[in-house]
Amino acid sequence: MSSQSSTAIDIENTYVPPAEQEQHQSSCCSCVSSGKKSDDWENRGLYGTRWSTVLMVLFWFASVVIESVGLGWTRVQCDLGSDDDTVVEECMHSSAVYRICSTVVVVLSVQGLFSLVYLQIHDSYWIIKILFCVGASAGLLVPAADFFDDSAFKNIARIGGFIFIIFLQTILLDFAYYWKESWLDSSSIAGRVTNATMRGSDLAACMKSFWLAALAIFSLVYIAIFVVAMAVLLSFFGGSDCSDNESIISISLVMMVAALVIQLFLTSNGSIIASGILASYVAYLTYTAVSLNPDRECNPTISTEKVYGVGPKVIGLVLALLSITWTSVMASRRIASILGAGGITQSGVLNVVSGSHSGSKSSNVKENLKSQLRVTVMNFNMIFILLSFYIAMILTNWGTIVAADDSHSTHGGNISMWMQAVGAWIAISFYIVGLLIPQFRILPRSVWDLQPKA
């Protein structure tokens, strides 16, 4: 993870003692469980982040269940005007997922926006928030909620899901850089320790080379997955009459190979593990694109509606769950570092070290940290909103419904197909720009680089 150069102090590496963290957690638990707001600086942000994560996991689980079980107990209506039972059933499942997603988006949107001016709302009132999600979901599923516009929400969710496809590149590269730096640190530490205990041997060099070799091996595995996947996609989804599929696969292949060449031979930026992870992600998006092609002649998965979109759906759900986990972990670390920096400033240590005893300066630093905390919380909620749309889309095949005889939403299938392909190409383009012109990187290297200037 990159440090925040724009801040007045180094808040990323601030150490918060375990005992102090436990004390903060204990006081925060009582605040959340009672539904009262917390005015203590040390209690802000962390527990709202954890409760938001719980809400997202519950939404993920509930959506998977709703999409899989019968909906005879609901009164969800399907307005496609089709007599095909399969189409009607798929439409009902999609509508149910949209309605649950809408309640989660409302909660995250409200607390994200209000946290910019009233930060305590992120940590407080979670009993009310959970009850609202449950009650609103039941109200949209059980009664005949004719006012809910499935088509409008689907289009909004498509846009949000598309944005998350591009933004997921940042999360994956964030993880890749963290992985690389962690293993490089491990190789350095292992080499120093072994060299100190066994001088005169080659074991220190071997220990260091082990971590570097393991990093290279994993990188090559990810690149191999990309190459094999593209070859398989050309074999199963290509053909003389499938120009769309061949164009999507070919462009993705050429662009990713170009990115690998640039990273390996033309620049010192980036890393091989980041390129490998991005290559695997591009392979997934390309697979999703061609598997959503509504043309039966070019998509063997339309042979039965039970197969259409299953592969991308499973992989997408796993990616979504991993994204929830990683975003929550890194947000908690970021917030904890800000809280720790705020605690040190409040105790006067920073003023003593800097030789300043001005209460005004201390107040300015504290206000800057509060501003960073508000923006971090807002970023966190924004990511979860986009992630909610993404989950809804992967569970509904991006709004495409397939019957046993044909695709019932050919237009929707084409839109979904090209959204995945363009998302992959944009992700590669941003990565190449970041390699060649790092100072003009379009997307931040880390989600948590989205911070106000000091």
Question: Can you give a write-up of this model?
Answer:
With about 450 residues, the protein is an all-alpha fold. The protein contains twelve helices and no strands. It has helices spanning about 20-35, 45-70, 85-115, 125-140, 150-195, 205-235, 245-265, 270-290, 310-345, 350-355, 360-395, 410-435. Helix 9 runs antiparallel to helix 11 (about 360-395). The radius of gyration is 25 Å and the shape is flat. Residues about 1-40, about 200-205, about 345-360, about 405-410 and about 445-454 have low confidence and may be disordered.
Intertermini distance: 19 Å
Strand content: under 5%
| Tally of helical runs | 12
The proportion of residues forming helix, as a percent range, comes to over 70%
How many extended strands? 0
Write a concise synopsis of the structure shown.
Helix 2 runs antiparallel to helix 9, helix 3 packs across helix 5 and helix 5 packs antiparallel against helix 6. The chain is flat, with a radius of gyration of 25 Å.
